[in-house]
Amino acid sequence: MDAKAIGEEASYWRKRYNHGEIGWSIAHYGCVFLAIFLSVAAAAVLQLPSKETGVATFLTSLAAALGSLGAAGGFESKWRSNRLSRSEIDCLLIDVQADKPDLEALAAKLKEIISKHDMEIVSPEDKKKPSTGAGSGNG
User: Fold this and answer.
1) Quick check: 66 and 38 in contact, CB under 8 A?
2) Which band of pLDDT confidence, cut at 50, 70 and 90, is reported for residue 80?
3) Which end of the chain lies in a sparser environment, N or C, as judged by fewer CB atoms within 10 Å?
């Protein structure tokens, strides 16, 4: 691969990670802030003279569902992973523009970024587990 090809490939992945960052950010913060808003609205409804408990119950249930959806969907970790991967690609794109870039190292770094991103999305729990035995290194 030459510098132009690595730059084009990195740009492709940067665009994907940027779109992922935006989408997961909307999903994550949308669930968080909508759940807060719905909880406050439910409390406000209960303060009304007519005490619309059915409406308040519905709003509270919806807030709980959004909170659970955000947590179970892992929206925050997906947002973080896309943001960090995009940032790493930004740095790689700067390195590609060097006078004499180390193309093999840059290609390896791009592969590492893609692989690391996939591992964070697919199995975020695995990062928290201590490694044991041979073959469980960073390889």
Assistant:
1) yes
2) very high
3) C
